[in-house]
Amino acid sequence: MSIIQIFKKSSQNLSKIVPLCVCSMMLALRIVLGMFSNFTLSFAPFVKIGFSFLPIVIVAYLYGPVCAAIVSGVGDILSIVLNNPTAFSIMPGITLCYVFEGIILGVVLYEQKNSVKRIIVAFILVLTLCRLPLNTLVLHFMMGIPYLELLIYRAMILVPFAVIEIMMSYFTIKAVDRTLIKL
Asked: Which residue has the higher pLDDT, 14 or 34?
């Protein structure tokens, strides 16, 4: 299936009741995880680690890049607004990176068999195209820290954590597959 077909089929899910309901539930879960499961390590103040990627992986696997991008971007905005409504601190660059992550995960995982290789490819693309270069660039402009220094620093934390994300994504998709078979 070509990328255009993937986007077309994914966007058609937005007009169906069941995908909208599932995406809404995953959006709610993304918001809750974005508010309460993210943490910063004391030795890595410029790296946020959390588990809000799991609902995005589920939506990307089930409904494709369009739905995953919407859930990812809207989830980021709402988790920030609901977590601290007085300090409206949305960073459009970071939100855009989350949207790109949803698109990448959706293109790689949508309507494909669950395999570790495919998930590894998806997270390598997310890491090398979004989290490391783009998020680091936004943080560089925000904080004035030299880009290369910040990039190396973030890579030392995010690359090992990507292994955990890959394992969690694989088992989450496996659980989704088992659940769908029972339905």
From this structure: 14
Query: In the prediction, which pLDDT does 182 show?
Result: 46
Q: What are phi and psi of 84, to 5 degrees?
A: -150, 80
CA distance linking residue 20 with residue 138, whole number of Å: 32
Contact 64, 106 (CB under 8 A): yes
The band of 34, judged by pLDDT with boundaries at 50, 70 and 90, is confident
* Token pair for 98: 């989350």
Name the packing angle between helices 147-182 and 53-63 (round to 10°). 60
Give CA–CA dist 55/116, Å, rounded.
18
CA distance 102 to 52: 12
For the chain, the average pLDDT equals 88
Q: The tokens 């607004």 sit on which residue?
A: 81
Provide the pairing of β-strand 39-41 with 44-49: antiparallel
Answer whether 35's CB lies under 8 Å from 78's CB. Answer: no
